[in-house]
Amino acid sequence: MNVTEFSKRVGLNPHTVRYYDKMGLLDDIHRLANGHRSFSEKDVVWIEFVQRLKDTGMSLEKILEYASLRKKGSQTLAQRKELLAEHSSNLKQKISIEKQHLKKLNEKIDLYQSALDGKISLD
Q1: What phi, psi does 36 have (nearest 5°)?
Q2: Distance (Å, rounded) from C-alpha 106 to C-alpha 84?
Q3: What does the alpha-carbon distance between residue 99 and residue 119 come to, in Å, rounded to a whole number?
Q4: How far is CA 34 from CA 8, 31, 38, 88, in A?
Q5: Which secondary-structure segment (H or E) carries 30?
Q6: Which of 2, 15, 46, 97 is most buried, most CB within 10 Å of its CB?
Q7: DSSP 3-state assignment of 105?
Q8: DSSP reduced 3-state for 25
Q9: How confident is the model at residue 71 (pLDDT cuts 50, 70, 90)?
Q10: pLDDT grade for 35, boundaries at 50, 70 and 90
Q11: Whole-number mean pLDDT of the chain?
């Protein structure tokens, strides 16, 4: 599939796909005789994983580090596992903090609802 098809499939704009390729985030994208990129299902799976890492707050710098390790093969499995374990730990901490924020926000909403229902006065 070409860049346009690929970008639609993975939900990125073509400029972002080209940028990711130029920065080395995509792994050896096949090129047609005319020089145009040709993406495979393997590329779709990889970029979906990259997007998941990005969506969970991993920096592009760390994603590039992971991609670089991945390109080196199975001798980097321990390093990749450690990088993902560190990200997982950071994400768990972030989720815990966000849960506390949500709890406090809902308490405030409940307080306002009680005032609107006439159960309490906020004056």
Answers
A1: -75, 145
A2: 32
A3: 27
A4: 22, 8, 11, 42
A5: strand 30-31
A6: 46
A7: helix
A8: coil
A9: very high
A10: confident
A11: 95
